[in-house]
Amino acid sequence: MQKLKKRQNLNMRNKHSHDKYLNRYTYIVTGLVTLIIFIALPEGPSKITANIVSSVPEAQGQEQTQIQALEPTPSRASPVIKKADVPLSHVSATPQPPQIQASSTPQSLITAQAAYAVDLQTGEVLYEKNAHTALPLASLTKIMMALTALELTSGSSSPTVTISKASLDQSGDSGLLVDEQWNLTDLLKYTLVVSSNDGAYAIGSGLGISRGEFIKKMNERAHSLGLQNTKFMNESGLDVDGDLAGAYGTAQDVTKLLGAALELHTDIFTATRYPSITVTSKTGILHKASNTDVLVQKIPGIIAGKTGYTLLAGGNLAILYTDSQSHHTIAVAVLGSTYDGRFADMQAVIQHIAK
Q: Using CA atoms, how far apart are residues 142 and 271, in angstroms rounded to an integer?
């Protein structure tokens, strides 16, 4: 009996010793495996930690902020370029900085939705931002109105235009009077300088063809000039309603249009370079026209310009000026800014070109 008990105690001690060594072996193997995995990982502990942090809501919020920072914030009156206009195939899961072409400059230079600047002598693009996106033109439309009217009446003495009651029903009061008679060229100068909607309507409906036919001629002329993204619904650029603008076009098209208008009818469009002009109607009424472009005295070498503003368009501005270094004619168009922002945006583009 004592021998049996002794043998059992010995077996228990052997089992305990075996378990102890087995546990130690297990701890050693586990530690080695952990060390091997740790060393084999290419990312290292900092990368693992970074991956964990980037998945929390705060980091997602930062990414969203970065995406929004790439897009100009529109004012209440500024048009918005719809994100749906960008093909889904071009959207990256990771926000990318704006792609700047060789002829472009940083998009943050201006707050306007679109802009384009070009040397009309060489064709060199000096600045562009969404230059091929069609946006509401507002009163830049009057450039084409004037060009169409002059070409319809070319080869004859300047016809007389009578201000009708319907003309005066247009938005804004530019000082024209019902049944007042005007020489066409004088009325065009006055209309361009003060951006008169009354004058534009009177011209569009007072040249021997219907108003609808006149607007059709404007669109035909746009096509002949190669303005493929330009469309006119009326002669003034006033919004048709809360959703439809009176005209649409791109910043590039506007520079091409203004350049052609100046080349063909310099005497008419250079009237827009002055802070104010005085014109007398054929009826004998004296009118002083104050320029809606407040930059005419601030831009050296300015040749011509035209402003535009509606709720749908926001603030627009197009100018031609002579560069002081190259002595070339530079055309610049700014679309979709604000009422005051269009002037600041124009100055920013011109200053950048001068650098």
A: 14
Query: For residue 69, is it within any domain?
Result: no
**Which CATH number goes with the domain that contains 287?**
3.40.710.10
Within 8 A by CB and 6+ apart from 144, the residues are 218, 221, 222, 230, 232, 247, 257, 261
Helix boundaries (H) for 90-182: 141-152, 165-168
55 within domain boundaries: no
Q: Could you read off the pLDDT of 34-50 as tens digits, one per residue?
A: 444 444 444 444 333 33
Say yes or no: 164 and 290 in one domain.
yes
User: In this structure, what token pair is assigned to residue 18?
Assistant: 């075996």
> Is 88 domain-assigned?
no
Active site residues per annotation: 139, 142, 195
Q: How far apart are CA 303 and CA 295, in angstroms?
A: 12
If you write DSSP's letter for every residue of 49-97 in order, what string do you get?
A: HHHHHHTSHHHHHHHHHHHHHTS----TTS----GGGS-GGG--SS--P
In a domain, 13, yes or no: yes
Q: Tell me the per-residue pLDDT of 63-101, one tens digit each, with 9 for 90 and over.
A: 223 323 333 333 333 333 333 333 323 323 333 333 334
Q: Domain range holding 27? A: 2-48
Instruction: Provide the pLDDT for residue 66.
Output: 31
The pLDDT value given to residue 119: 98
More confident residue, 326 or 93: 326
Nearest to 222 by CA among 286, 145, 287: 145
